[in-house]
Amino acid sequence: MGDEDWEAEINPHMSSYVPIFEKDRYSSGENGDNFNRAPASSSEMDDGPSRRDHFMKSGFASGRNFGNRDAGESNKRDNTSTMGGFGVGKSFGNRGFSNSKFEDGDSSGFWRESSNDCEDNPTRNRGFSKRGGYRDGNNSEASGPYRRGGRGSFRGCRGGFGLGSPNNDLDPDECMQRTGGLFGSRRPALSGTGNGDTSQSRSGSGSERGGYKGLNEEVITDSGKNSWKSEAEGGESSDTQGPKVTYIPPPPPEDEDSIFAHYQTGINFDKYDTILVEVSGHDAPPAILTFEEANLCQTLNNNIAKAGYTKLTPVQKYSIPIILAGRDLMACAQTGSGKTAAFLLPILAHMMRDGITASRFKELQEPECIIVAPTRELVNQIYLEARKFSFGTCVRAVVIYGGTQLGHSIRQIVQGCNILCATPGRLMDIIGKEKIGLKQIKYLVLDEADRMLDMGFGPEMKKLISCPGMPSKEQRQTLMFSATFPEEIQRLAAEFLKSNYLFVAVGQVGGACRDVQQTVLQVGQFSKREKLVEILRNIGDERTMVFVETKKKADFIATFLCQEKISTTSIHGDREQREREQALGDFRYGKCPVLVATSVAARGLDIENVQHVINFDLPSTIDEYVHRIGRTGRCGNTGRAISFFDLESDNHLAQPLVKVLTDAQQDVPAWLEEIAFSTYIPGFSGSTRGNVFASVDTRKGKSTLNTAGFSSSQAPNPVDDESWD
Ligand SMILES: Nc1ncnc2c1ncn2[C@@H]1O[C@H](COP(=O)(O)OP(=O)(O)OP(=O)(O)O)[C@@H](O)[C@H]1O
């Protein structure tokens, strides 16, 4: 089977640009292997692909203070149902006008996009350097960071995107020929093996390239034609097809300072305590209030202290004792509120208590814990957290994910593996290759569980739990975490969990983080770019993520911003893994303050000091919106989210958006309320687009009618998955 969301099934010659500095760096080694280092170390702790943000910085502290919003609300510690005062949202209709200064810009300066998703316009005053770099009409290659960002950052731009008219679109095949020619001479220099081909994002047929594809996800076949390809038709495990992926991610730094580097909690961290928590299910153990109460071993406590954790977040207060008590758990808590540690710490505590044998080299490893998550960067992040908290213990965490050399994954595993962090496709591959046995599994964790169980990954997860050797749900502990949990997905999840699982809801299930100041602007399609530039110029150098709906648009907008001399990089499923990690690194470490991303970057990524999220395109579901804006305002820090609402295409989101804004006590523009009312359907129970999140544990029966009068939520529309592959 294939890999995870990030896996692009896209023609090799349509992969994205490689920034100049990357090329320079890679080409300095004979095979670029100064970057693609083999995992030579035998250290048990030294494997793992990529870097993490290691800066110690004070949190972003500007923005609104919601200090008094939750006043009087408090956690209770009932065993079965613990309620506080959160979520007393205003019903919509009672909001005034937004004072936004960005209301509905005009269309001047608009530069019309082709409706052709391929966006491969050949030329119009645009030429490209041999390496695919963007040149403007004056033939002057952009310099500095702009040059880097602009280097062919728009895939279609290799054939010339820029100001091309919609009628000038290249046929995808032609585009690929062009780009193939351009990149043919470049790629060998990047190869770790000298085979001249490092592309991890090849279209559908590659052994590791295509990876997992959910139903209806876009695939561009070798012939260059888009096609819809089900997971059964190809994917990562088809080793015989296509060129091998050779990318070996660099190991993360191993010094203690780097391992424990963290950013500061923000001014609103203490306000987490005022959020309502509801625990449902029978015989829930009481919450703990301090780390000491968890009674963890000394090494774990030391690691917690070194990580800078002094106080539990609500999801940790409730989840840790539940997991320590051996219960299955479905937990839903707002973005950036510490769900990762909420499952890692008790699992590690159990492992330490049970005295697992130190891992050692073995051809077949039998980990005690498997953690799956939907994107490569997210599993890598979870791995780094696991490595941090298991520091100084004999527990060995390993990460494997698609887009990297399979042999590298195997080498990491055979050195010893207690906790395996994996994307689904690579995990299934490794299981198929009998490098991982499942008999010892005691903990199965689904992070971003609603995503892991939806129609994209659900079948893969079902396969996982039915793999030979996998202990039955009665025999293992299954833990699910997310910030959103649509009802339908909750029902599916029950199949994975013991019937007496507990459900923890911190705040409103699916609610947005209140530390994010949300603004919705009415901006028509043709005014978006101008508005974006205006906003980014106002923002200055503050770290900003710009979400767009498609991979191609991500490149397009990134290139456009580079033209505007705004240092930008991009991340999406069509980029090679090395490029994605480079882009994320450039963003994390401040080389590029703007990251244009598809929804692949919407979930889980914990990047320090992201101060703004801009939804250039609104996503098609409200849950996706909640995850996207959750890239800012993390861990008690404040952030801002600005969303462009296009009357032509976003009306379906008006109702749930008003609901989310209201619940998070944000201003709701009058025009948005009007649209919400005009599109209001009594008894509305959700559609595949623009649905409203569930508000309770589904075992309680019908979901609670929320303040806006809607009730249910559904799995993401398959169409949305374009940006996830
Ligand atoms: N108790 C704590 N004290 C201080 N920092 C914490 C604590 N718990 C978590 N953090 C930090 O908060 C940040 C966000 O945590 P994490 O990534 O686990 O959030 P999350 O709830 O999983 O978010 P998302 O829903 O976006 O995946 C991380 O940098 C983490 O190290």
UniProtKB/TrEMBL annotation:
UniProt KW keywords: ATP-binding, Helicase, Hydrolase, Meiosis, Nucleotide-binding, RNA-mediated gene silencing
An annotated GO cellular component: cytoplasm
UniProt region (Disordered), positions on chain: 25-255, 705-725
GO biological process: flagellated sperm motility; meiotic cell cycle; regulatory ncRNA-mediated gene silencing
Biased composition (Gly residues): 151-163
Gene Ontology MF terms in the entry: ATP binding; hydrolase activity; nucleic acid binding; RNA helicase activity
Xref: SMART domains: DEXDc (SM00487), HELICc (SM00490)
Motif interval(s): Q motif: 289-317
Entry protein name: RNA helicase
Family in the record: Belongs to the DEAD box helicase family. DDX4/VASA subfamily.
EC number: 3.6.4.13
Reactions this protein catalyses: ATP + H2O = ADP + phosphate + H(+)
Compositionally biased region (Basic and acidic residues): 70-79
Coiled coil: none
Oligomer status and interactors: Found in a mRNP complex, at least composed of TDRD1, TDRD6, TDRD7 and DDX4. Interacts with RANBP9. Interacts with RANBP10. Interacts with PIWIL2 and MAEL. Interacts with BMAL1 and CLOCK. Interacts with Tex19.1 and, probably, Tex19.2. Interacts with RBM46.
KW ATP-binding (keyword) present: yes
